[in-house]
Amino acid sequence: MTINSDPLPGPPGVDQTAPNAARIYDWLLGGEESYPADQQAAKRLLRAVPGARQAARDNRAYLGRVTRWLAGQGIDQFIDIGSGLPAACPVHEVARQVHPDARVAYVDHDDVAVARARAILADTPGLAAVHADLRSPRDLLTRPDLRRAIDLTRPVAVLLIAVTHFLTDDDQPGEVIAAITARVAPGSYIAISHVTADDITPGAQKAARAACAGASVPVRPRTRAEVARLLGGLEAVPPGITDIREWDLSRYAARPAGPVLLWGGAARVPGPR
C-alpha cells in the first residue's frame, strides 16, 4: 500500500484548532497528517513523557509482530479497531506475507481517518474501511461493509491496538470486549495494547494530562492488572500482558530500557483448535 504523504486537507466540519488523538499519534510516528494544534499538543506530551515518540514507534512495531504471529496461527482475517490514519506496514500487508488472500477491516470513528483509508484501499480486494465506534460493539460488528470483508462464523483476530485507553471506566471497556468476544467464532483472538502510567511519576502524569487537554478523546491509563482484566475469561497467550517491547521478541534480542509506557498481549477465545 502506498501511503499518501500530502498534507491533510481541511474538510468541512473538521476542527483544526482542537488536538485530535489520531493526528497526534500520526505526528509522533513521523507522519504529516496533522495541524498545528496537534503538533503543539504532541510536543507538550513529549516534554511530559520524553519516551512518548519512541513508544508510538514501539507500538507500531508490536502491531506488526502480533499480526504476523496471529497469521502464523492460521488466522487469515483481521478487524483492526481504532486503526487511525493510514501508516506504513499496515495490517493487511503484514498478514498477506503469510496468507496472500488475508482479509482486513479497518475500523475507526474518526471521519478523516476513515475517508483517507477508503481512498487508499478502494481498489484492493478483501479490504474495508468501516466507520464505527468501539463503544457500540454490536453495531460495529453488524456493519454491512465489515461483514462483506469478514466472515464472523470463522476465527478472526480483533486488534485493539492503542485504542481501549480511550474508553473511560463509564464506557465499561471490559464489557465492550466481552460483547465482541461473544460474537466472534471460537478460536478467534483478541490482541491489545494499552497506555499505562505504572512507571510514570505523578508529576509526569499530570503534565501528560494537561498536554492533551481538549483533545478529541481523553486517555485513561490503566495498570497491568487492569489491562489483564479486560481480557478476562479468554485463554491468555504466553507471556500474558507484558511490555509491548518484549512481546514475541527473539530470545537473542536486547531487553528494552526505560519505563513501560504500553502493556500488551493476546488472548484466544475458547473453543476447538
Describe this structure in words.
Helices cover 35% and strands 14% of the residues. It is built from 10 helices and 8 strands. Strands 1, 2, 3, 4, 5, 6, 7 and 8 form an 8-stranded mixed sheet that branches. α8 links the parallel β4 and β5 (189-195). The longest helix has 21 residues, at 52-72. The radius of gyration is 18 Å and the shape is globular. The model is unreliable at 1-10 (pLDDT under 50).
Give a quick precis of the structure.
By secondary structure, the chain is α/β, with parallel strands linked by helices. It is 35% helix and 14% strand. Helix 1 (21-28) packs across helix 2 (36-48) and helix 2 runs antiparallel to helix 9.
Give a topology summary:
Layout: H1 21-28, H2 36-48, H3 52-72, E1 77-81, H4 91-95, E2 103-108, H5 111-121, E3 127-131, H6 137-142, H7 144-149, E4 157-161, H8 173-181, E5 189-195, H9 202-211, H10 224-230, E6 235-236, E7 242-243, E8 262-268
Parallel strand pairs: 1-2, 1-4, 2-3, 4-5
Antiparallel strand pairs: 5-8, 6-8, 7-8
Helix pairs in contact: 1-2, 2-9
Number of strands: 8
List low-pLDDT spans. Answer: 1-10
Could you give a short account of the major beta sheet? Answer: 8 strands, mixed
Radius of gyration: 18 Å
Number of helices, counting only DSSP H or I runs of 4 residues or more: 10
* Helicity level: 25-40%
Q: Averaged pLDDT, please? A: 91
Calculate the terminal CA-CA distance, rounded to whole Å.
Answer: 32 Å
- The sequence of SSEs as H and E is HHHEHEHEHHEHEHHEEE
> What is the molecular shape?
globular
Strand content: 5-15%
Structural class: alpha/beta
